[in-house]
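All the exercises in this workshop are built on plain-text protein records. A record pairs a protein's sequence with a compact description of its fold. Backbone structure tokens are a discrete shorthand for how the chain folds in space. Once this layout is familiar, the rest of the handout is easier to follow. As an example, a complete record with its sequence and its structure tokens follows.
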Amino acid sequence: MPQTMQSVLEKYISEIKRIYSYSRRIVRWYEGIIEPDDFSEDLLNETELKNLDTINNYMSNMGY
């Protein structure tokens, strides 16, 4: 049975929360330096941009 986009996103969000929780315990020294309103795609590296393209293409192909 194919996964719906919602179930894929729910799994993704769950994993992000797990990683965030882990990283907050392990990497206590990290503090974000870019405010959300100041963020732009120009700050992403080549790999991050490719990942963003992959996600956008998937969502477009799925009709989102």
Summary: The chain has a mean pLDDT of 83.
